[in-house]
Structures are given as C-alpha cells and as structure tokens.
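Protein JINGUBANG: structure tokens wanted.
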Amino acid sequence: MVFLTMAPPMQEAVLSTPLLSSATASSSSISSTSSEADDSPPASHRFELLDVTKYEFPSKTLSGFQTYKSLAVLSGHVGSVSCLALCGEFILSASQGKDIIVWQQPDLRQFTKFGQGDGSVKGLVTVSNKVFTAHQDSRIRVWKVSRSSENVFKLVDTLPTTKDYLGKFMKQSNYVHTRRHHKRLWIEHADGISCLAVYDGLIYSGSWDKTLKVWRISDLKCLESIKAHDDAINSLIACKRIVYSASADGKIKAWSSGKEGKTSHSLKGILEGHKDISLNSVIVSEDGKWVYGGGSDGFVMGWEGQGNGDFVSWKLVSETKAHHMAVLCMCLMGEFLCSGSADKSIGIWKREAYGKLCKVGVINGHEGPVKCLQAAPCNVGSGFLLYSGGLDKSIRVWWVPKNSAKQEDQQ
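Answer:
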C-alpha cells in the first residue's frame, strides 16, 4: 500500500510569458464590475490564445514538483463558486449566491448571467441545448439554450414537473415518510440536491435526503427513487452502464442501470475505504475500470473493477494522502487526475499501473477552498486547460503541461 505525502509549502513559480495576452489590458485576469442586480454583461477584456509551445512554463520548485500561476481570474459571482460545466463554446459556473454565469471561450468574457433568485445552485450538467441545475431548495431547473431568444438561457421547466405532480398526488401509495409527521411524494427530494449526473438519456440526482432519483430527459418524468445511503449524497458519476454515488457515510455505491430498455437500478457493489470519513467526490476512468474517491481525511482512494468489462466487484488498490485537508472535488483528463481541496490547493497526479497515483504538480492561487474542477477536453499546445472554482467566489484558469509527468523527481 503506497502513501504519498504532501510536499512542504511552495512558492509559486513565475511564468515568463502569460498564455493569454490581452489587447486592452496588461493583466491576465478578468474582473466583473457589474452589481448583483445588473444582468447585462460587463465591459470585457478580449484575449488572444497564443501558441503555448513558444513559451517557457513553470519549472520545478525546490520540492521537485511543478507549481503554476493562473492564466486568468474570472470574477462576478456574488457567492462561493459551487460547480462548473462545459457547454459547447461556453463554460458555465454556478454559485451559492443563486447566480449562473456563462463565459465564452476562448476569450473568457462574460456572455450572460441567469438564474438569480432560484435557490443556491449545487449542481450543473448540460445535455444538448439544455442546462439542468440542482438547487438547495430541493428542485431541479431546466434551462433551454436559444440564440434567437433575447434571454439566451430561458427557464423552461422545474422538476418534478406539474404533470408529474398531477399524475401522482391523488394516490396515497405515492407518498413516503421523510421525517416524523412529514410526508412527500416519492418523486420529490426532501432536502437540498447536491449533485447531478447524465447518462444514456437519463438524469441522476443525489441529495442530502440520502436518495438517488432517476429522471428521463425526453419527458422530464421521474422514473425511480432509490434509498441509496445512510447519509447525504455528495457526488455522482455514470460510466459503462453503472452509476456511482459517493456519500458522507464513507461509501461509494455502484448501481447497475440494467439491460437495454429497463429503467430499474439495482445495487451492484459497495466500495469501502477508510472508516469514519465522508467521501466528497467520485470519478471514473473512461474505460470504467478505475474508480477514485476523495475523502474528508485528505486521501484519494482508488478501486479496480474486477471482471472482464462487466464489473462485478471492486478492490481497493491505492490510498494516497493527497492533501492536508479534505478533498472536495476531482476531475480526470486522460492519464491525469486533478484534485481540489479545502487546503486551497489543486494537486496534479499521474495515473500509473495498478491505480497508483504519482504526484507531478501543485497549483496554488485560490484564497479559499477549491470546490469544483473542470478540465477542457481539447489539447492546448502540449497541455490542457483546467478551470477551478472556489469559496473565494472566483474561477481560475490554468494551463497544465502534459509533459510534467516526465519531469517527476522521485524523493
């Protein structure tokens, strides 16, 4: 069992030339000066994406690992940034302040803002021309993207839908006990919705009420409600017909979505690691073989799926001390795993044989815990762009060189 400990505190290396060069300002950061009530995009700085291969990027620090400077700082949220999602040419960010901001790539200007007053946003996914947002008020809101409309992102529905309510509220068997002397329809979440996942025409929602609900995208109907965990669900991801839910009860559960045409889900396996912790994030490799969970104790744990494609069990194969404080979020970009923490840092890890993680870099810059991460799927030069959102109300943009893995300095 391999334990990788954090390196000593590091000073940020200085970029010789910024990746994003502004034609109107010498700074590589973008700041919004609009007030909360002002929905119009602020005067923006336009940036030109330069050829990253021409420039010298951060070298090693004394600790042997790379550290990076942010290429841009996007400001404008009135609350802590809670989630990020890519939507075509846009990147969307949502906050505890109830607002959702749309940033246009690659110049990273604020394109529009929507969603104010609809409850603190906890989760965000995009499907085709629709955006689904999960809220603390226990509702899911559906926004439609339409360039022909003055309001580019228009609210078109709320889940559960009125049609779903009307079809079930008259039947007593459709009600469940949520707490003493309280009943709700089984299609309703009884507490804040913390996360969303999308897969194969379905939307999955996880909640602090410990349940996992399944919604059909085509008609927005709730198909199933699963009593999934003994504590709040913090993270969801779906891959290879399996839905993984990570919970504050310290477990990741794998739910089989069944055969083609069936909507019912069944418990396929339980991934367990450290005792008496909360698992705050779960991610899965593209082939579905490797599952990683980020814990409140600062560890990233890795499980290997057992079976030839159709996984029937999971074996704990790695335990990596990734951060000094809780791991709050993670994302994968090919062979790289990125982890965000309450210690305000982002760890860059190379996935190696048998699910092991090798540390290759540390990103510092946020002034508060890092709550969400989103890697851009397209390569930029010899690396990729990484977006991070934090409790400091900012989104930061980083360039992560893929060749950093070759410069690892074993210590």
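The mean pLDDT is 81. The chain has one domain: 70-401.

Cheers.
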